[in-house]
């Protein structure tokens, strides 16, 4: 079963000025990843190609890093096989930050994704995009809100607030 999940947000900065937001992912200067609300994103060698890590139980490795793109790859034998990535693109109002998850579901992933993971993933990515907007000088007009279902699973997973 194929999955393609895309989230995007327009930022009031040109791509060149927004690049540090991607460059600093998983570092002490990270202004995007909501590690106070979700499992922090960590990599054994930092944000460099080949570095293994992820966030909480979600494991992946850094596949490539460029000024306007970071690509991660999930393990080839896991229940989700594919990539997730951040792309920073030029936009008439500044830049657009796009998160794309693409791959195929295997085994238990065929149940996990539609019942639980998709909802948590969407909430996490919207939190990332809220932070991107705030870090670029404009707080989100309508910050993401977690549904009751997402709040239920966050409690079950011990994700109330980690910070």
Task: Describe how the helices and strands are arranged.
Elements: E1 2-11, H1 15-23, E2 41-43, E3 52-55, E4 58-66, E5 69-73, E6 80-91, E7 94-105, H2 109-135, H3 148-156
Antiparallel strand pairs: 1-7, 2-3, 3-4, 4-5, 5-6, 6-7
The helical percent reads 25-40%
**Cross-sheet strand order for the largest sheet:** 1-7-6-5-4-3-2
> Main sheet?
7 strands, antiparallel
**CATH class descriptor:** Alpha Beta
CATH topology: Alpha-D-Glucose-1,6-Bisphosphate, Chain A, domain 4
Provide the CATH architecture.
2-Layer Sandwich
Round the Cα radius of gyration to an integer and report it: 15 Å
Number of strands: 7
Gap from first CA to last CA: 36 Å
**Helix and strand composition category:** alpha+beta
Number of helices: 3
CATH level-four homologous superfamily name: START domain
Keywords:
163 residues; 3 helices; alpha+beta; 28% helix; Alpha-D-Glucose-1,6-Bisphosphate, Chain A, domain 4
Summarize the structure in words.
The protein has about 160 residues and is an alpha+beta fold. It has one domain (about 1-155): 2-Layer Sandwich (Alpha-D-Glucose-1,6-Bisphosphate, Chain A, domain 4). It is built from three helices and seven strands. The chain has helices at about 15-25, 110-135, 150-155; strands spanning about 1-10, 40-45, 50-55, 60-65, 70-75, 80-90, 95-105. A seven-stranded antiparallel sheet has the order 1-7-6-5-4-3-2. Strand 6 and strand 7 (about 95-105) form a beta hairpin. Helix 2 crosses helix 3 (about 150-155). The termini are far apart. The model has no long low-confidence stretch (mean pLDDT about 95).
